[in-house]
Amino acid sequence: MELFKMKRDIPFMSYGKITTFISLVTFIAAVFFLVAKGLNFSVEFTGGTVMEVQYEQSADINAMREKLDTLQLGDVQVQALGTNRHIMIRLPNKEGVAASQLSNSVMNLLRQDRSDVSLRQVEFIGPQVGDELVTGGMLALSMVIIGIIIYLSVRFEWRFAVSAIIANMHDVVIILGFFAFFQWEFSLTVLAGILAVLGYSVNESVVVFDRIRENFRKPTMRNKTVPQIIDNAITSTMSRTVITHGSTEAMVLSMLVFGGAALHGFSLALTIGIVFGIYSSVLVASPMLLMFGLSRENLAKPQKQKEEAVV
Amino acid sequence: MNRYPLWKYLLIAFTIILGIIYTLPNLFGETPAVQVSTNRQSIVINDQTQARVAEALQTAKIPTDGMFIVDNSLKIRFKDTETQLKARDVVENALGEGYITALNLLADSPTWMAKINANPMFLGLDLRGGVHFTMQVDMEAAIQKTFERYSGDIRRELRRQKIRSGTIRRTQNSLTVPFREAADLEKALPKLRDFFPEATLTPQGNNLVLTLSQQLLDQVRSDALKQNITTLHNRVNELGVAEPVIQQSGSERIVVQLPGVQDTAKAKDIIGRTATLEVRMVSDDVSLIQAALVGNVPDGYDLLYTAGEMPQPTLVNKQVELTGDNINDAQPGFDEQGAPSVNINLDSTGGSIFADLTSQNVGKRMAMVLIDQGKAEVVTAPVIRSAITGGRVQISGSMSTAEANDTSLLLRAGSLAAPMEIIEERTIGPSLGKENIEKGFNSTLWGFAVVALFMVFYYRLMGVFSTIALSTNILFLLAILSALQATLTLPGIAALALTLGMAIDSNVLINERIREELNDGIPPQQAINIGYQNAWATIVDSNITSLIAGIALLIFGSGPVRGFAVVHCLGILTSMYSSVVVSRALVNLWYGRRRKLQQISIGTVWKPANKAAGQE
Q1: pTM for this one?
Q2: CATH T-level topology, domain B130-272
Q3: Which CATH number applies to B6-24+429-613?
Q4: In terms of residue numbers, what domain contains A80?
Q5: A-B contacts at Cβ under 8 angstroms
Q6: Beta carbons of B549 and A147 less than 8 Å apart
Q7: Given CB atoms, is A144 within the 8 Å cutoff of chain B?
Q8: Which of A298, B76, B264, B540 suits A2 as a labelling partner, its CA being 20 to 30 A distant?
């Protein structure tokens, strides 16, 4: 069986203007939602307490709310997780209240009303932790970017490095845009997912770049123009692109479906990331190469064939 | 061309066998066990301990499934949790003071595996339930305490030399000692220089300024952290938790993880305690006491109350003569009247300070102040009848036997060098942990099944090879994680799934390359060879970029991000090996020997002949 029987190369580069336009629109939309709505940061970043409790019979959320208001903690959120038996309670950090004892007092309060309540998990994060996570996250993000730029510049050329990174950032911003638009919770695991997308999507660009470089060196491609060479590279890696992404997406979707609440954010970020990863590596990174004026000479200096020693 | 020398096959077979051996321990279950350890250096767990435990269990008619000593702790297996609970009480009673008896789960893998260090992975708290705390150490308080100690020492030394000085003041990194006359300062300077060789002493007019170097202050900070860790260890041991994690995180934080702990309130109570003992002088000046009682506490004094049911106000000097730092040991006991007491053993510095104090203040009262959970209480305020030398102190007063026990435990467990605050706390219920494991593994399994099915369907035999290679990838990854004794967390499982999804990429690259070569009319054997060769450069490039991202996560990430990164990075490395070396070995084994290979089962329908007509 073969999914792709491409007889001719698909002229991706001639669609360059359209694809760039689409990217630009989605990108701007994502930035807009990020600015307008912002991310719904989880307690790990904002600080506060999140508790998940379980009742044997379904619970009365309104009664819980009223009960918890007696603690006078400010903005307390009570919401059901799927069923009315699993309840999530968010409590803000409050100056002067020993937050680490808070979960105990909440549990005591809930037990007064119903004895069938049990604690599934508590997360309390002090205000000082969140800032560090943001700094750490930003640092990780910039290190990934710098690392990839350096590696690609050495292995390929600066144009490739810059294009790949722009394409990647495009993916990352769009995922963030999704999270902002739907107000999905942005947690540390989501951050991990996004950073993984960064590595993953570069991976994708690299495969296409690799083929472009190879095509430039192929004697049969000597009389082809640069866009033709890129088209050929994309077309011939097309089946691999779709299959690889398909299998990764299968894994990630499996996590989304079977992984439960804990893996939800992570797999959601990856699900979106993979879809846009394909798009961006093919239709953003490559036109970008043209824009930066890639020519045969950029890759003309023949490198030695044996590159195995790297691992 | 597609043949591996024998040694290569053997090497691959060897790695796979190693992989199996180190993955296997994860498949055996766990049995309930009781773990006996000690936090005292004077007590050693040895065959004698084992014999005592065995005898006690025999008397109580509790059957064991074997016991053994590892790393100075005795582990005893039991059939079920009920026996385990019964056994713990028996063992605890049999051994008495100084031992920590904790409930534990032991891997059920055969002993020979444990001998070659093939142990199952640790499960993170999110997979087994438990409590996680991050505590922030108040370093300013540690520094403050150091300066207080210095000013106390200066005062004592000057008193001994009979030099009069004013009140010592602290500024940023220094202490200022005012003297009345320059002559006093000149007399004091050489003595204090001898006494504090580590500090810088500079005269400024009639004042003497003692400065501590940054290096010394850093030392104070790191010592404070270390002492707090030790103290936490002692306190956690009182909870009887098996395999607690207590470690430094950054320069002023401590992470405490207590697997399997349910009663978080109790855990918080015990580890959050900041019990310290201070010895301070009591003022019995009636006018001062009366002023204090109406709310005008005189400068330099604190109005504290005694512990117990009828709190008595006591006016104590702010100046701390002696702290719990100088306590070697504290045991509950009874005084001559038969009242519960705490018997304290001081170290040599503490002993000499105490001897000085008591000899100079005969007839006066001194207060033992216990500061616990931010509350200062006078435990007892006895009149000093005669100098107490030898460093043995007995505190008795209005306390019950249980209070005496608690007080001595807290004092023994050591005081904190600086107060701590819980800045992060996570509790995961055990049922949620089980659910997390199940869901994590299920999702990996289903994902893997889909990918495997597709590969076999799409690439036929080559797809089978790819799937086998992918399976060995899981095997290697699990084996390495087990061998490193990594802690598996939920993000780790997520990374496992993602890595598998990504790992197939290398095989897809290879298979697609081979197909391409075949389509170009290259003979099968050569197509395989070229396919692997051409794919290699791409595989290296794409994996290294992923690895860069993974390593950055590992370095800068924290918590779940790091758990993800560890598995991700290792997975990238194992996938390179399995998708290139292992799958190649399989292909070579299958196709390599055939000279006249006509066809590869790779699912192509495009024959070279068709192709010639199709393109150009």
Answers
A1: 0.77
A2: Alpha-Beta Plaits (3.30.70)
A3: 1.20.1640.10
A4: 48-125
A5: 266
A6: yes
A7: yes
A8: B540
